[in-house]
Specification:
Helix content: 10-25%
CATH superfamily of the largest domain: HUPs
Shape: globular
Largest sheet: 7 strands, parallel
Distance between the termini: 73 Å
Number of helices: 11
Low-confidence stretches: none
CATH architecture of the largest domain: 3-Layer(aba) Sandwich
Bound molecules: flavin-adenine dinucleotide
CATH class of the largest domain: Alpha Beta
CATH topology of the largest domain: Rossmann fold
């Protein structure tokens, strides 16, 4: 790994000084024998520089020469191809997030001029799910089977996936930002020396350089950062459930496609965790992510007991109850109901926000809902910027009115 300033290109503009987060670059007098006499020149303090590369794009004159390698010269990225979606399965069923990622991955693959592939891990019975992956647009499926892969455990899954990734070299790997996906992605990224961006809310391909543009909230959701993995492959991103919409079935008749079978070597040392039983937490009855209608309450409710109004409206609509974080933090409702950046990401057909301001962290979890209705007494509340229909008024008047009217209409 090395970095240096190219004397013949540096104009002494000092933009790189501002770009360096570690204050490793200073301007010094230009050596007498260097071109551009009289101008200052940038100097990098190699004891302070972390080789993060932040200075490189800031230089408009290509005067910073950064070479990174993983041992043995520059990395040749040309061997990496195709967009892979990790087809997360539980109890032998591919999860909805995988189909959502296939829907988004199709466009990415088209923009890269590569194939859309799914990678599915499980025991032999998981093969039944392969056809669905083709139906949802996968052009190739990497089927990785082993009895020890029936249910998820970190170590054997990481080892198996790392083996197949190292062999076939995908350019991009997308995983769901589920508990399983987050656990696996971090391990895998380290194992294969890849860059990983967690919890992306937008993905695209840079039209010129073809890097994956990975957008996610940063600094507590106050800005959206777009991250690129320039020097390493694969480019890995996790995306939460419901951030992308599951498209319609692409190939209804698909019975077969290109299946690449793979049996990994699973080391007994990787099986230190034994799965004895799977016990489901029956206390969690809220399924916000699959709800078609969600009625959410915010701090405008004033106190915990007023959530009753939200529950009544949700009940007549056959929907689920959501909440802002302010109400969860206040202890008015359990965290299972929280919608937003640190809660659930939802995408119902109808989202009714009652007494919710619509701060960016809340919007991050619900703004892709098909129809958003907001009830808020402040006409300038940010929720109205994303709402399709808005009622400027007191929720204590309008929520019971809506419940009454819908009850009447439904007989
Ligand atoms: C790192 C981080 C992560 C976060 N994650 C989340 C998250 O996942 N989800 C989330 O929701 N927030 C999250 N937040 C908090 C977020 O910034 C807001 O503080 C929160 O969403 C505010 O909740 P609220 O809209 O219910 O309350 P408020 O901001 O207090 O808004 C209450 C609204 O109710 C209206 N109102 C009051 N009385 C009435 C009435 N009688 N009738 C009608 N309207 C009324 C007011 O006009 C106001 O607009 C996060 C913050 C941070 C820093």
């Amino acid at each position: 790994m090395s970095i240096k300033i190219l004397l013949d290109k540096c104009t002494g503009c000092s933009l790189c000084v501002k770009a360096c987060p570690f204050a490793a670059i200073t301007m010094i007098d230009r050596p007498a024998d260097a071109p551009g006499k009289g101008k200052k020149i940038a100097q990098i303090d190699l004891d302070v520089c972390t080789l993060c590369g932040a200075c490189v794009p800031s230089c408009k004159f290509n005067a910073i020469d950064l070479k990174k390698d993983l041992g043995g010269g520059d990395i040749d990225l040309s061997h990496y191809k195709d967009v892979w979606v990790f087809a997360e399965q539980r109890e032998g069923k591919v999860q909805s997030v995988a189909y959502e990622l296939l829907s988004e991955g199709r466009q990415l693959a088209a923009d890269c001029g590569s194939l859309l592939c799914a990678v599915l891990l499980g025991d032999a019975s998981i093969e039944e799910e392969v056809d669905q992956l083709f139906k949802y647009g996968a052009q190739k499926v990497y089927l990785v089977t082993h009895p020890e892969l029936k249910d998820y455990r970190t170590a054997p899954y990481t080892r198996a996936l790392a083996e197949v990734v190292t062999k076939h070299k995908p350019e991009i790997i997308l995983l769901g930002a589920t508990t399983l996906g987050r656990d696996l992605a971090a391990r895998l990224a380290i194992r294969v020396g890849a860059g990983l961006t967690a919890d992306c809310t937008g993905l695209a391909i840079d039209p010129v350089k073809k890097h994956l543009l990975q957008t996610r909230p940063a600094f507590g959701g106050n800005i959206m950062a777009t991250i690129q993995t320039i020097r390493h492959r694969p480019q890995m991103a996790t995306v939460r459930t419901k951030v992308f919409k599951k498209s319609q079935i692409q190939n209804p008749k698909s019975q077969e496609g290109n299946v690449i079978r793979f049996t990994p070597v699973i080391d007994q040392n990787d099986l230190v965790v034994k799965l004895l039983d799977i016990i489901k937490d029956e206390s969690v009855k809220v399924n916000l992510q699959d709800a078609e209608i969600i009625v959410s309450g915010g701090r405008g409710l004033g106190e915990a007991k007023n959530f009753k109004l939200i529950e009544e409206l949700a009940a007549v609509l056959g929907g689920a109850v959501g909440a802002s974080r302010a109400t969860v933090d206040a202890g008015w409702i359990s965290a299972h109901h929280q919608v937003g950046q640190t809660g659930k990401t939802v995408c119902p057909k109808l989202y009714i926000a009652c007494g919710i301001a619509g701060k960016i962290q809340h919007l991050a979890g619900m703004q892709s809902s098909d129809t958003i209705v907001a009830i808020n007494k402040d006409p300038d509340a940010p929720i109205f910027k994303v709402a399709h229909y808005g009622i400027v008024g007191d929720l204590f008047e309008y929520v019971p009115l809506l419940t009454k009217k819908i009850k009447e209409l439904r007989g």
